[in-house]
Specification:
It is a single chain. This protein has one domain (about 10-94): 2-Layer Sandwich (YaeB-like fold). It has 3 helices and 5 strands, in the order E-H-H-H-E-E-E-E. A 5-stranded mixed sheet has the order 1-5-4-3-2. It has helices at about 15-25, 25-40, 45-50, and strands at about 10-15, 50, 60-65, 65-75, 80-85. The protein is globular. The protein is an alpha+beta fold. The chain starts with 9 loop residues before the first strand and ends in a 7-residue tail after the last strand. About 20% of the residues are buried. The longest helix has 15 residues, at about 25-40. About 30% of the residues lie in helices and about 30% in strands.
Length: about 90
């Protein structure tokens, strides 16, 4: 939970997420992923996300069913940038 007085994080999406990733999601997953972003990432992106390694260093991810939401957190601007949303079998092929 955020500390009292702290505002939730601002959520931003890269263009490819809006134009490719979200439209490709099954309709049932869209609602679950939207809820996860609004209730988990907007509130506690660092504590709830797993840090990634290797070529994805500096990124974190959360799991929603068989999908992964990969994002970056900018603590200075209180911003979470969604980098991509993909099925777990395709997520790290970027």
């Amino acid at each position: 939970m955020p500390k009292p007085g702290n505002s939730p994080y601002i959520i931003e999406y890269l263009d490819n997420v809006v134009t490719e990733d979200i439209p490709a999601l099954p309709k049932t997953m869209r609602a679950l992923i939207k809820k996860a972003i609004e209730t988990r990432l907007a509130v506690e992106p660092i504590g709830l996300g797993k840090p990634l390694r290797y070529s994805f260093i500096g990124h974190r991810r959360i799991r929603v069913g068989d999908y992964r939401i990969v994002y970056r957190v900018d603590i200075k601007t209180n911003t979470v940038t969604i980098v991509f949303i993909k099925h777990r079998k395709n997520v790290y092929e970027e």
